[in-house]
Specification:
homoheptamer; mainly beta; 2 helices; 5 strands; 14% helix; 51% strand
Chain lengths: 81, 81, 81, 81, 81, 81, 81
């Protein structure tokens, strides 16, 4: 996966249809299947679940996350949740 | 619904006329019927109700929400409120 | 009123000359008659009054509110104040 | 004054040469004579005075205020200070 | 000085080479000789001194101040420090 | 390395494929191999690890970091972690 | 040095290759040799050292600092550290 990544958004592109972990500025974390993203890093997750203290606390299903609230997105980290 | 989503704003488009949950940066949550949105993620809800501790606390009716105060929008989560 | 709303700013347009409730990021709320707005959501209220704990605390008369300090604007909610 | 206001900046235009009250994000308030403004809502006040707890606490004279620190500007409210 | 001011930046222009007081968002105040400014309100002060509780606490000499950290700039107020 | 640096992004360019330390605004630090960056300073790290109190606390693997959450990036500092 | 400064960035230009003090919004200060800067005030320092309570606390070596986290940059102040 790593050798396909020349620009930052390539990570999001190769993660489409896969589980990702999204860290928000307010401290919340979400895991869910990455369906779509744009250059503002607005993202859409399916089966989005909020993570608190390492455990899934709430299910939001299909969710639009506004890009400017996102700190990082990790496809690998989601696999271990 | 999921297979129509290629870009993030598609989620908002397929949610028009349906109930959505909107999480604001200041911690407040709103539920209401999504009437309109734009590329800044400014949204208009009809029958907007504020949610506190999982319960509806205030009714605002027709409400314009400024995009830069929004963290996420979930059409699915509103169904369970 | 709702069936005229195709874009978010349409809510502000149909609310011109009517009372609106404006929620600011710093926690303050204003009610007043909406005289004007622009695409930055800068708004002008006439007979602007600050609301604290559900009661009108201060009168500001004609007031210009800078758009980036606004969380939401509700024409319906103002009617009940 | 109100019937000349079609766009938000019209309020600032009709207030040139008059006393205005300026609320800043950090909580401070200024009163002073509005000399100039631009589309960023940068403003210049003459005889600017800081208001604390409803009383004038410091005099700053001619002062440039950066637009992105401003919450609201009220020509009417200044008259009652 | 006041009758030369038609646009906000005119205040900075007529203050070049003179002492100004600069209030920063983080609460700090600087006084110094205004050498240069641009449309972002980035400014350069010579002999910049930090003010704490009305007294000069530190000397920074020639200093570049980033515009988005500035609340207000007053040429008059500096004269009284 | 230093004599190749004429513009700020040159530091990121010469650090591609090397370990870097990334300081986030929220206080967190990451170390990882820099794979990609863009003009917004969005960066991609491989083998990203969070640092707390000087020790590696969590592994995130391949991670996209949004540029506007970044304070500084140091290729040298990572070497000593 | 002062008479070469017509625009704010001129201060950074005449400081290339010299020690500068950089104040960050989060309260941290860095000193280091200024290698490069751009119009966003992104800067690169060599031999960057963090300053806490007037003493050098950590060495970061070559470091990229994102412009929007910077409050001020002083070439003179660095000389006295």
């Amino acid at each position: 996966m790593v050798n396909k990544i020349e620009r930052p958004l390539d990570v999001l592109n190769v993660s489409k249809g896969k589980e990702v972990l999204v860290q928000l500025k307010a401290g919340k974390q979400f895991v869910g299947t990455l369906l779509a993203f744009d250059i503002h890093i607005n993202v859409v997750l399916d089966n989005a679940k909020e993570i608190e203290n390492g455990e899934q606390s709430k299910s939001y299903g299909l969710t639009f996350l506004r890009g400017d609230t996102i700190v990082f997105i990790s496809p690998s980290a989601a696999a271990s949740n």
